[in-house]
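Changelog-adjacent note: as of this version, every example in the card shows the full chain rather than a window. The one below runs 171 residues end to end.
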Amino acid sequence: MKPLLVHIGELAAGPREIEFSFTEQELEEHLEDLAAPRAFHRVKGILTLEQIAGAIEVTGHMEGFITVQCSRCLKPTRVDVPEFFQFIFIEEPDHFDSETELSGNDLETAFFHGDTIDLEPHIWDHVILSVPMVPLCDEACEGITYPKGKELRAPLENSPWEALKNIKITK
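Full-length structure tokens:
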């Protein structure tokens, strides 16, 4: 994927749209820590950037999905990436107050320094956060199912530990 660098000066003329896509290989490299097995499918989207009162507002729409294992039954499970996201870039201040209380809107705010913004890491954050820590194929998933009539705690036949029952310890 080509870098998603935006020059601030280009936004003075008005809003700008940027299309992007992540290939299966790029997804695999960035999401390698997900539990295997998994399958990656192209993720693509479009960003709209607009300069508003000294801030850069970025709204985006993404579509695509990733296949991971259900945490309960281990079946392949489709996880959709977020469809809509938004963040705001403001110029990095020279100094920060030692204690600043954050609001909900501050979680969507990032700082930039200089005349360019790299959007790629922020988009990857949204892709990575779209994958749940405990993916489920269905909220009602009961986990691995066993054949009927099979007792889960049945004694083993021909157990390798069977011979230990015959050992007699004398003191």
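Structural remarks: The beta strands are 5-7, 16-22, 39-40, 43-52, 55-63, 65-69, 76-80, 84-91, 109-112, 116-118.
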